[in-house]
Amino acid sequence: MEDIFGALFLGLTTILTIKVLTWTFVGILAGMFFGLIPGLSGLTGMGLLLPFAIGQPPEVAFSFLLGMYAVTTQTDAIPAVLLGIPGTSAAQATYLDGYPMAKRGEAGRALSASYFASIVGTIVFSAIFLVLLPIIRPIINSFGSPEFFMLAMMGLVMSASLVGPNIPRGLMVAAAGLLISCIGVAGSTGDHRYTLGTYYLEDGMPIVPVALGLFAVPEVMELMIRRSSIAHSFSAEGGAMAGLRDTIRHGWLVVRCSIIGGVCGVVPGLGGSAAEWLGYSHAVQSARDKSQFGKGDIRGVLSAEAATTAQKPGAIIPTVALGIPGNASMAVMLGVFLIVGLRPGSAMLNEQLPLTFQMLWTVILANIVVAILCLVLQRYIVKICQVRASIIAPLIIAFMAIGATFASNSFGDLVAFGVFGALGIFMKAYDWPRVPLLIGMVLGELAEPNFFIAVQVYGISWLWQRPIVLSTLVVMLAFLLVMLLRRARERAQTLEGDADA
After folding, report:
1. How far is CA 103 from CA 80, 384, 419, in A?
2. Which residues fall within 8 angstroms of residue 31, CB to CB, at 6 or more apart?
3. Does pTM top 0.70 for this prediction?
4. How confident is the model over 434-458, as pLDDT tens digits?
5. Cβ distance 268 to 318 under 8 Å?
């Protein structure tokens, strides 16, 4: 335990250095912007800021990106409460009770409660991670190449859950991402694969233009189509102390929903939307008086915000310990790990443990800082929501085009950005999932070398001779079976409804 507390202290001292703290604050301000603008999200921000993080030392890059990532769910509560426009799908449950409160003049109370609940959610699950770490470390230290390969495969299969019951599409897109990860010179054999005779592709497909094209371009193009302001003005003054009192009075509910949200973060594929709705559902189910939910009950705001914020430190756990992204933003973060030369697993829980704790400290610090900033400045911050989308969108496109070239300073980056931008627009328009493609790309970088080493060292016998491999395979097959059965049941219900109609 001494080494854990030593690493915890070292991670804190690292984040408090001038350079790291400065970049963290820049990330926080960027995250506030991406949370405030409806249609943008932490994932869009992660892709857009990724070029600026690459080339920085790991402790700076992670603090910068996590500072942005941690606060988007806090500030996207502002348009949800004040304007009735959930900025992301993870703010929809907050909107149910927050917007009715705003309409009856309690906007400040609702927003303040959401800030304080977010702080509690982050701290609670970060503390749980600290308690679980002594249990997790020996398990991860026993993993070898076969186990990490199977975990990568399970991450690919679980990425299909990001598209609901349509598992064939999710698996096809994840497989396409796996193929894209094979572009370049094979590290194990030296063969040139899918390079099309170009030098640009010999080092593989860079993740920066892919992430920007797939996720940022479709959202920004949608903003460009709008010709009016995003929303009208709304008062957000007052209620800070009332929100704090609500958080204290319903503290046990906030803690329970924080645990629910953190577990949603640990399970790959669930993410903020599932966390928020599960937290909100728990608040409704556990309440004696359910009559005010959906009409402006502060418990609805507290439960939703605590759950969705707690899933963010929860998502760090599978990413650093297993190499399986806890959500789409963590898939981008996993790509940063590989770019700066870090491998998830035992190294992140042993030699790089201070860096792991620094990531947790960043999330905690970012949530506290943004809560203070929002309390002080929310009457001014909300004005960003009233800027015409046609003004904001072209500026973001220009920054994205510049950022895409940071991958390798090549014209090929712009070509890749354009190609994947068009692909992202197509996939969004025809309801094809984009997240599994990125997860497939990132996990392919982990799966291939581990598979090659496993076969070279153990032959093929590792498939049935290693208990963790067998257990992972059983879990993966069970997950597939459950998803397929759910899809079949929903189809049957749809057909039955059509027949009744």
Report:
1. 12, 20, 44
2. 42, 45, 67, 68, 69, 70, 71, 72, 75, 366, 370
3. no
4. 778 877 887 787 788 888 888 888 8
5. yes
